[in-house]
Amino acid sequence: MSTPRHFLTLLDFTPAELEQIIQRAIALKAQHRAGEAQRPFAGKVLAMVFEKSSTRTRVSFEAGMAQLGGHALFLSPRDSQLGRGEPVEDSARVISSMVDIVMIRTFGHDIVERFAAHSSVPVINGLTDDYHPCQLLADIQTYVEHRGSIGGKVVTWVGDGNNMAQSYINAARQFDFELRIACPEGYEPNAELLAANAGRVSLLRDPREAAAGADLLVTDVWASMGQEEEQAARARAFAPYCIDAELMSHAASDALYMHCLPAHRGEEISAQLMDAADSVIWDEAENRLHAQKALLEALLLAAQ
Ligand code: CP
Ligand code: NVA
């Protein structure tokens, strides 16, 4: 058995391969809108393991696989043996013996690593506590569609140093942009990851300073899945870290803002910006579909 190609973080592909996925996503989107059939994966099956909730990730993978001619099946811990303690390694061996590709959304990043290490087919990280690389494909696609290449641009992350922030650190490296992270003390991204990318990633406390002249501002919820009981303490710590019209006024005049969703209007982002006519947040959400179809293609074609 040859070792399958996985997508656990953005570092699993080269910058050139990531660029190809973005361009392919843009092309697939145009084909889809033109009503052209895209059915290269007849008979192929994607298993989707969700240990956390999801709307976008589930719908985009399930719809995407159907549009490519294949099938997607949903597994949750509630109604599979995953929730009754069957080891990840055993589950990986069994599930991968029956399907062509697997997507997992879970808690510890080590779980997707262990699953991938025992899987005979490609494994996609659909979000862990540490990384959300599929969202970054959609975000970069969205930036490219609206503003062209993100290479050399300034991106400002506002808020928690969470899985999305950490994915932006990897993206800064792979897509060659400057990243400024504005977060309160105690909520920084992983220190080793920051140190490894110190050349292009800086940490600031003042969101206005971080936003000054930036080309893109990005945020996410203050309390991620699994941190619900910290919501009140986090709401106090993060109160100054809201993307609103005032903060955007410090950015470049053509700056975009993004949010992976789901969002809390009036907390990390203002309702006015969420609902603005020129918001690209809805394109960003839709692009999960197109970017992941390009990702599925890249992984399934490499496995053939
Ligand atoms: N952005 C994102 O991954 O959304 P879901 O949690 O709805 O999948
Ligand atoms: N940081 C958020 C992202 C949700 C898509 C979470 O992990 O809950």
H-E string: HEHEHEHEHEHEHEHEHHEHH
Mean pLDDT: 97
- CATH fold label of the largest domain: Rossmann fold
Largest sheet: 5 strands, parallel
Question: What is the share of helical residues?
Answer: 40-55%
Note the total helix count: 12
Radius of gyration: 19 Å
Query: How does CATH name the architecture of the largest domain?
Result: 3-Layer(aba) Sandwich
Note down, in words, how this protein is organized.
The structure is a single chain. The protein is of the alpha/beta class and 304 residues long. The protein folds into 2 domains: 10-132 and 285-303, Aspartate/ornithine carbamoyltransferase (Rossmann fold), CATH 3.40.50.1370; 134-282, Rossmann fold, CATH 3.40.50. Helices cover 42% and strands 13% of the residues. It is built from 12 helices and 9 strands. The protein has helices at residues 15-33, 56-67, 88-98, 109-117, 133-147, 163-175, 191-196, 207-211, 231-238, 245-248, 271-274, 281-303, and strands spanning 45-50, 71-75, 101-105, 123-125, 154-158, 178-182, 201-204, 216-219, 256-259. The strands form 2 sheets. Strands 7-6-5-8-9 form a 5-stranded parallel sheet. Helix 1 crosses helix 12 (281-303). The radius of gyration is 19 Å and the shape is globular. The two termini are 12 Å apart. Bound molecules: phosphoric acid mono(formamide)ester (CP) and norvaline.
Question: Which descriptors would you attach to this protein?
Answer:
304 residues; alpha/beta; Rossmann fold; 2 domains; 4-stranded parallel β-sheet; binds phosphoric acid mono(formamide)ester; binds norvaline
Short description:
The chain has 304 residues and is of the alpha/beta class. The protein is built from twelve helices and nine strands.
